[in-house]
Amino acid sequence: MSVPMDTTTPVIAAQGLTKRYGKATVVDSIAFDVARGEIFGLLGPNGAGKTTTILMMLGLTDVSEGTIRVLGHDPVREPLAVKRRVGYLPDQVGFYDNLSATENLAYTARLMGIAAAERPGRIAEALARVRLTDVARKRVSTFSRGMRQRLGLAEILMKRAEIAILDEPTSGLDPQSTVEFLDMIRVLKQEGVTVLLSSHLLDQVQRICDRVALFQTGRIVLIGAVPELARKVLGAGFVVEVEADAPNDTDLAQRFSAVPGVTAVERVAADRFRLTADRDVRPEAARAVVAANGALRRLSVDEPSLEAIYTRFFQDQADKPGVRHAA
Amino acid sequence: MRREGRREGSAFQGVGTVALKELADHLSSARMRMLEWLVIITAVIPFYGAVEQLRNTTAEDPFLLLRLFTVTGSRLPVFSILGFVVPLVAIGLGFDAISGEHNRRTLSRILAQPIYRDALLAGKFLAGLGTLAISLLCLWLLIVGLGVLLLGVPPTGEEIVRSLIFIVCTVFYAGVWLALAMLYSIIFRAPATAALVALGTWFIVLLWPVAAEVIANIVAPPDPRLALLGYPTLATLEWTQALSRLSPNTLYVEIVQAILAPETRSLGPMFIDQLQGMLRGAALPLGESLAIAWPQAVALIAGTIVLFSAGYVVFQRQEVRA
């Protein structure tokens, strides 16, 4: 089955998606689109509705209201069509401990309906890609958390899924395993797989996500690419730090302010300035130092951090009177 | 479940895969080792004491093989051991069917594959039943084989058929308990709770005949005039029997009576006038015996279906997240 690489129609589209358990609304009328081939992050604290949203995408839980389409299918009505093309790595994925890595994959391969002749090849290939070939015949009970997580990814690779849904893929991993795992997610993207991942670890997600949706008590409060969100929430996307000696500091500061795009100039120390700008203004800042007869010692730019955006956003919310506070 | 219209794809996709995997798990598990020992011990018991008793009646008894399953000797007959042990084994095979997947965190991963939940449940049920069927078949082969060796009388075709029907009915009986254990494995997240509740149910069922009698005596008190003469009252008897038939054990014992004791003519009370002209001790043809056991067998199958469906409904409504 060949699927045309169409980047215009979203592979996942949710509208007014709502999930209620009795009176409690866990997911409250959210809307988002995920384009083919992008890495989309669902971010937010635990219990914000990320996992429930994922389960609704897979048809593993009912939708109370609204619609969701995954690869053009309605997961409520056609769960098998969705589950054939979507790979899912649950939060803290489990395997049958008494079986080996290969046996575990062989079982799911049969459930996926992969032809018997194809199975050994695809299992070996998937295990090689996540670097588990050496332990393929070992029981999963001996596996570390990171290895289990990689085995879960191997399952998605074996499935040749068009969309990989990863729920908290890096939580509980040590830094080394996290870096490895994030690299593997990037490889998925290079192969044209759309990746949707949920996480409460903001800085990790920032490193690999093209776009993110911030969840708070069942609602998406912010959605977009990280620099875009930074402009929206922090008022500026970039913070440039300049360390320079100049004969006249005030003159230098004035020159910085005159650079188009700079919204604020802050003097951190005698010879250090912090410029807030809506773009990367390093070349202009360097020119300004030279023009002021200064000696430039250091010039650095801070990408806006998701953490800062997140914290600021919720601070702003809390400061606004009359806003309902999240429990 | 708000599923309008037919859902796509077959509900049975994946059943075979799940069943085979679970069967392999069962057959290599410690439970199976226990089951093997049970089979061997149960098979040896009738040859311990009972054979002597049978040797004396070899000449006049046309159903020698069947007696191996029912003869008391100084020990328990095979069928009452099975009536007692099969529920325990079925509970042992089913009490962690679904909760185990939950606790191993494999449930959502498996259900994210293109199968319905039905397939997981049905596959596990079939695997449990398959394990029991294999064990019971081994038991049957052992008893028939040892019977031929020790008694030296080849079994007749009818004996083979009757004893195989007995084994099939034992599998149905096991099905009720397996479905019950699986229902508990869905309701209770902790396998220990499910196992204890299932064992509690089993114990209540064991005591049920006593309770049935007490209830029957309250609902339809025995006629004091008949009691004075030492006769039972028909209404009381009928109530006792109707109530005790709520228990799968009663149904199973009745089936066994009809199938393994070909001279059984009725499972309920009989009137004197019904006995007129009866050839006492003469065997009924197989078809007649089956007709007597039929309602009980259907009741066991129906019970299995009801319990399995209940489990299915609860499972469908359950959240998969841990």
Structure characteristics:
heterodimer, A: 327 residues, alpha/beta, Rossmann fold, Alpha-Beta Plaits, 2 domains, four-stranded antiparallel sheet, elongated, disordered C terminus, B: 322 residues, mainly alpha, 14 helices, 71% helix, 0% strand, globular
Mean pLDDT of chain B: 86
**Whole-number count of domains of chain A:** 2
Overall strand count of chain B: 0
- Low-confidence stretches of chain B are none
Query: What value does the Rg of chain B take, in angstroms?
Result: 22 Å
Strand content of chain A: 25-35%
Number of domains of chain B: 1
Q: How much helix, percentage-wise, in residues of chain A? A: 25-40%
The CATH superfamily of the largest domain in chain A is known as: P-loop containing nucleotide triphosphate hydrolases
Largest interface: A-B, 36 and 30 residues
Q: Termini separation of chain A (Å)?
A: 47 Å
Tertiary shape of chain A: elongated
The CATH architecture of the largest domain in chain A comes to 3-Layer(aba) Sandwich
CATH class of the largest domain in chain A: Alpha Beta
Assembly status:
heterodimer
The end-to-end span of chain B amounts to: 20 Å
Q: Determine the structural class of chain B based on helices, strands and strand pairing.
A: mainly alpha
Mean pLDDT of chain A: 87
